[in-house]
């Protein structure tokens, strides 16, 4: 909810320069192909036997770094939360598993899950203070977390071995590792870690293409917009921290049983920075990019010992200029941007048809949204002053007034972004005053914004499906595992999204990333997204601004459709002709006060309105 | 009040003023771009290293310091132009500038290790020596630390005067509130931002020289830990507040020394970061900061 | 300062020359291959680069004398870990993959050495530890239990050092120990306290820790002061010791000041300047004795011939820095001990070499005049091999004089 939440409007129009684009497409298809994945896995599983044990060990380090990088990818790349203290989670996983196995006699197969859970719980706990801050403050807080963890590990001698570290953890390197009674050497362990990594990558891809992953991106781009369609930023972030912590903890636990010695220096700030570097150079959001980057940063320093002297310099240069040279990292260089709906869901939805009539509120009492004497004060400024109005089902109410008259503020109050200084907002029997934005959306009061707030790199279809997030009932685990129930439910809502795409005339551009499309199209997409959240009340904040004549017609039709569905509609706009054809009644605000309420013809005659509003807007309209 | 307590308090004020000086430098870029230079420690190090190098080549100390500061100022320009600006322009909500400024710091550290060696080298006494002190309440107060404190206080006064009383200060204020609006109003926003990075770097250089002479040595990793504590001081006092930087620095210094003295010296370092997390959780805007304007 | 870089490069070139050495040897079953990982670059390379130089000199001397039974020695795997434990583990795995490597040296520093110790033991090939001080490296289960069979140490162990420091501090009854918060500092401080209390049960020992590269030690110092200490011991690295010494000066603290071997290095002398006068420190006695014993003198001459009076050697050709023994000499001795074991046993299998090492008796080392190992005792350095030095100002130079 701060001013710093900014939309990415810089449209990256990709020129079809055939060479690299075709290469990217080819590579992406190859990497995404299940046969290729299986072949690669088989090759590594079988081929590892031919390698020296040193190479196998380094390869194990690579895999662990890849899992660790996914944890940053999830938190920073997907959910947009920076972390400078991830070594803390890594360390928690490592020490927990190491101590449980070494001192408590746990089997590795039991200790690792416990370690993962502990790291996840820590992440979940950290999310509460972290949720209070953002940007640079978040960087500081996570930095502090990492430092505090490091100091605790160093001083808590009885448990962690303090500065002397924890030697003799059963590990592949020491040939002391047994898992469930099986003795494991370095090669066996590599194979095990490889399977774990493959699983993590698979789940990570599923997650990215699920309601959870899309919700992460939504809060990443704009927490306010996410809230407006019922995605709670707080609990979404908690989940992101917990899952990210779990992944880092997993990497740490695997690390513990790879090397067999845990010293505090291995979990200090440099490791947090290293993983951030791997993730960023790999390309945030790109799963395959992370793996390649982990390989690069783990293998090369070990193989190119001669350049040790240059390591800092090279490292520094890569970090400094990676953004300039490779803004989307290795992943962006080699692969096409990822997509966020599972192909299985797309295929399945293609076979379904949905009737937009299903969007009509059904079997519920027709209830009105009532605003009673709402006042909103910012310091000395009264933005909204005792406004009352009523939005009835199947009626369109226009909210007009000069700039700064309090229209958007009123919408912000109703939609839960501001808590009013005085007054009440009721929906039916329910008092929704001061509920948070996602709760208001859950109460089926949904809004759009003056400036469309969509996820820029999502396609139109993906953005629309985001609207249905609130209604998807399957659990995050089901989504991540790609269970049939989750697929079916998502496909059902996607089919509805297709129907709304058709209604809004967006079917042709459904596969285009939203940031490559003109402004008018984005507006329509945002209205469509709001509609998919199944509102009973919809608040449209200047939806017609910047639209062409033709687009305005399309929008008007869509609004009429919504009216026909029985939605209560509040429409902010300046175009009087546009409003005249649509609205049932008009509310006029001036300096926060309601100066007129009635039909549009009466408004045009109202002297107060003419003085305050039409005086300077008549020419415009 | 015994000597023990006084010694700790004086030490807390001494190191606190060091943190404050570092935090002041960090604040300057925060004013104009809401960014921090995560490689600030390397600038401190490089300025001290260059001073050692120049004076070992027979350059007079004052000239050596001045020359080093010029180099550092130029690096500040470079950092703005090549690390911060591209990151901000890419509109990254993932804070690319954290990575790029940190990267440049690591690069400088690597260069220093390559060309000046990675071992600690002796740093000459620039102003006063370790044996120079005055007595206060029967305690010895080091003049080297007093210089740091004095520089910090004078800088705060100058910065406050600058922001409140001069046209350029007003312009900086405007840029910090809304750079786009400032640009529309015809302010030289680019130059103001560039200037803030140069000045911030120069402050880092000054801090580097003043601090290196206290410890007596400087090595390529010098400054890194200090900047972390500078962050703590800046956040505690409220990012962007000059007075806050001093207050934050003193609070960190005093609390860590008192905890070190009365509880355990092992906890001295950890407590600063625990304090940082606590402050961010309870009052993110810090002691003297105003909460960020909330607007949907 | 710039010359160091160039010399390091020169050293590297020399190393490469050794690696590329005569192909004649292949006819006689190849070279005797040795290896190690150490901090060759990075902030702690004073020690890592040091042992590499020592190792190179040892190999060159061996080959100049015609090798061992016609086989030349070779440093086949020398890798850089920058004192990062993970990197040490990765490097060592790579070195151990080379089955032709017959003997190894432990990394420079306790952190990496602790990280690789279990792995080294599991491998079974002989390792000699040049620098890491923690007893756990050789005696993982306590010093009264048997050592790791294949790990030997010639470093200034915490045990012998604390014994010697206990002796040196015997004259005081209130002692402050300020140590860095690392494995080296924490174990060292703990052992020193035990050594002092064993000698003088009534003594009051205060332990205070600090983080490496802390800029202010006032809290530690005033706590020591409040405990009424008459003497203070610092266990840490030279640059931090300089900070402490200057901090003492600011607090106008005057008490007898002692340093552990790691503290009395060039950064301390450069960083603390004139203030170092009077500081007493424990270090190898060999380089302080005049005349030096033959092997020490030989090594010193070889080093000076090869590298001149550089940072490791110190400016005074006649009097090398005492720290040269620990930084460079220990690497030289490690490699010589491995080669000596091969010479005596005639074989290069781990069993043969370890058996030979276990029987090492009064081997003349540069840093330790008589190195002996037994199957129960894998630590060569004894209290007598250490000396207490006092730092004195002679003209504009600081010299260390052996006191006992």
TrEMBL record, chain A:
Keywords attached to this entry: ATP-binding, Cell membrane, Membrane, Nucleotide-binding, Transmembrane, Transmembrane helix, Transport
Alphabetized InterPro entries for the sequence: AAA+_ATPase, ABC_AA/LPS_Transport, ABC_transp_permease, ABC_transporter-like_ATP-bd, LivM-like, P-loop_NTPase
Report the residue ranges that make up the ABC transporter domain in this protein: 369-616
Q: Does the keyword ATP-binding apply?
A: yes
The answer on whether this UniProt entry bears the keyword Cell membrane reads yes
Q: Which SMART domains match?
A: AAA (SM00382)
Where it sits in the cell: the answer is: Cell membrane
Q: Name one GO molecular function term.
A: ATP hydrolysis activity
The record, for SUPFAM superfamilies, names: P-loop containing nucleoside triphosphate hydrolases
Q: Name one Pfam family in it.
A: BPD_transp_2
**What does the record say about its membrane topology?**
Multi-pass membrane protein
Q: Which GO terms describe its cellular component?
A: plasma membrane
Q: Which residues cross the membrane?
A: 26-46, 58-76, 82-101, 108-130, 136-153, 189-208, 239-263, 275-300, 312-335
Q: What is the name listed in the Swiss-Prot or TrEMBL entry for this protein?
A: Branched-chain amino acid ABC transporter ATP-binding protein/permease
Q: Whose protein is this, by species?
A: Siccirubricoccus deserti
UniProtKB/TrEMBL annotation, chain B:
Whether NAD counts among this entry's keywords is no
InterPro entries, alphabetically?
Answer: ABC_transp_permease, BCAA_transport_permease
Q: Which UniProt keywords apply?
A: Amino-acid transport, Cell membrane, Membrane, Transmembrane, Transmembrane helix, Transport
- The reply to whether Methyltransferase figures as a keyword in the UniProt entry is no
- GO terms, molecular function: transmembrane transporter activity
Example GO biological process: amino acid transport
Q: Where are the transmembrane segments?
A: 6-28, 35-54, 60-79, 91-112, 143-163, 192-214, 226-255, 262-282
Protein's cellular compartments: Cell membrane
- Coiled coil, from the record: none
Classify the source by domain of life: Bacteria
Can you quote a single GO CC term?
A: plasma membrane
Q: Provide the topology term for how it sits in the membrane.
A: Multi-pass membrane protein
Family, according to the entry, reads as follows: Belongs to the binding-protein-dependent transport system permease family. LivHM subfamily.
Query: What is the name of the protein in this document?
Result: Branched-chain amino acid ABC transporter permease
Organism per entry: Siccirubricoccus deserti
Its taxonomic path starts at: Bacteria, Pseudomonadati, Pseudomonadota, Alphaproteobacteria, Acetobacterales
